Amino acid sequence: MNIKAIDKKYVLPTYARADVEFIKGENATLFDVDGKKYIDFTSGIGVVSVGHGNKRVADALCKQVSAITHISNLYYIEPQALAAQKVVEASGYDMQCFFGNSGAEANEGAIKIARKHGERDGEIKRYKIITLNHSFHGRTITTVKATGQESMHNYFGPFPDGFVYADGIEEIESLLDDHTAGVMIELIQGEGGVEPQDKEKVQKLAKLLKEKEIPLIIDEVQTGCYRVGEFTASQAYGIEPEIITLAKGVGGGVPVGIVMTTLKNVLSAGDHGSTFGGNYLSSRAVCEVVDILNERKASGDLEITSLLFNNALESFYKKYEDIFIQKVGFGMMCGLRVKDADTLTNIINAARQNGVMVLKAGRNTLRFLPPLTITKEEIDEGFEALSRAVSSL
Ligand SMILES: *Cc1c(COP(=O)(O)O)cnc(C)c1O
């Protein structure tokens, strides 16, 4: 049996897989089983931030796993402490970290911190979490409920109570009450369609929540770890949230989720935990990825790459203004709105056939999340392939 048949027979059908099987990657270049080459403008949905097959990450992980991979959180774990230090220092915030294994899990941790913090005076139980419509916060029962999209709430109920959805940042104020434990938002909605929030509105909200002592949770699972130019999008927006969650790009391909917070004394021993979270393997990956990207930030390479990518995307957009209506995004989290949403799947399929991988977001957005290390040659080759794809339709 070939791999597709085995997958169909033994793996639950929760994904609509495209007909391609990759076996090797080098930075932003992928190779499939037939040796065909592709440029990767997806980085595995914003995960492979330092490129496929990154030598420094591979060497650090090989060295780590041949020494020790896992011992549980009952003991000190050197790379976990160092990863926390690196992440906190890169953010510039006065925070501490908890390590889990995914974005959803990081958001679960954030909600637990906000809710326990909300019970601080005992008298009023603050439990409500306000999130935005068109948001995406994960696939666990709680984070599905936190996600403000009706289509995600069709099955799986009853859900935990206390999630309230706002139509936009400006509607949040009117929804705050004595029971509000926290507000959780993405600064640039990813799955919702590469939708950046307005900076002034976000700053106003952050200020209001500080006055009311309601924690602001920023879901940076997609925007974090230099995706938008700064270590966190929160820094780019000039705000100081109480809680930030990270996942996707921060492990460079190794599963990791981090919740970091200024509320250091809310959780006590026993309140939260994870068997795998922050083990030697995943936290070593975080150390190496953050080091690599810190260096690229300091040298200016990160900004150059972002400029090159955005210039190439802009020229591509100008060339096909009959198909696309708007270029959107922030840093290396970019999108093109497609005039006719029905053509989006055709574009993505034609792109793959022509040797470039791109993503969908929301209803009508072609999404680009390239590795932050993508080279000029890879960018040019990718957009040439994308031009061929779009011209072929
Ligand atoms: C991907 C994503 C998540 C969920 O992360 P998982 O690792 O799939 O659990 C949560 N929030 C945002 C903003 C995301 O982009």
From TrEMBL:
Cofactor: pyridoxal 5'-phosphate
Protein name from the UniProt record: Aminotransferase class III-fold pyridoxal phosphate-dependent enzyme
One Gene Ontology MF term: identical protein binding
Keyword flag Transferase: yes
Source species taxonomy: Bacteria, Pseudomonadati, Campylobacterota, Epsilonproteobacteria, Campylobacterales
Annotated keywords: Aminotransferase, Pyridoxal phosphate, Transferase
Signal peptide: none
Source organism, top-level taxon: Bacteria
Matching SUPFAM superfamilies: PLP-dependent transferases (SSF53383)
InterPro entries for the chain: Aminotrans_3 (IPR005814), Class-III_PLP-dep_AT (IPR050103), PyrdxlP-dep_Trfase (IPR015424), PyrdxlP-dep_Trfase_major (IPR015421), PyrdxlP-dep_Trfase_small (IPR015422)
UniProt key word NAD: no
Family note: Belongs to the class-III pyridoxal-phosphate-dependent aminotransferase family.
